[in-house]
Write a structure and sequence with these properties.
Helix content: 40-55%
Radius of gyration: 33 Å
Number of strands: 3
Shape: rod-shaped
Strand order of the largest sheet: 1-3-2
Largest sheet: 3 strands, antiparallel
Number of helices: 6
Structural class: alpha+beta
């Protein structure tokens, strides 16, 4: 038997579709203090196959929101219907998306390559001209 079974039982008996509970209420139901990670990390409340996740998942519930500052969690009955998108909790946990880099247009790339090649060629011609000017037409040795 999981030490989180009292939470499963409490949720199974709850008649409404959601239950907002303070951390103190949860601790009263469980009969022991929540771990430090529950107070410090949203990850404790989301995801996985941990015993505490199974406590609400197995009873047909999911974590809707967690406010660690207010020490409050809202559980919502999960009707067994797979959500079309992430839960609000999962959205809150997602890191901000990186801006997408736009691929340069083909014409711009071609112009940049052609310009670079022209600059390289011009530089080479300049070096060769300086070399020849210093030699003053002397033959190659």
């Amino acid at each position: 038997m999981s030490k989180y079974k009292p939470l499963s039982d409490r949720l199974a008996r709850h008649e409404a579709d959601d239950w907002s509970a303070s951390f103190a209420e949860l601790e009263e139901v469980l009969g022991f203090p929540l771990p430090k990670s529950a107070r410090d990390q949203n990850a404790w409340w989301t995801g996985g196959e941990k015993p505490h996740h199974e406590a609400w998942k197995g009873a047909g519930w999911r974590v809707e929101t967690v406010d660690r500052n207010a020490q409050n969690v809202v559980f919502r009955r999960d009707d067994g219907v797979e959500a079309s998108g992430p839960t609000p909790m999962e959205v809150a946990m997602e890191p901000p998306a990186a801006p997408e880099a736009k691929a340069p247009r083909k014409g711009v790339v071609s112009a940049a390559v052609a310009g670079g090649a022209a600059a390289l060629l011009a530089g080479g011609v300049s070096v060769l001209a300086n070399f020849l000017a210093k030699r003053k037409g002397e033959p190659w040795r």
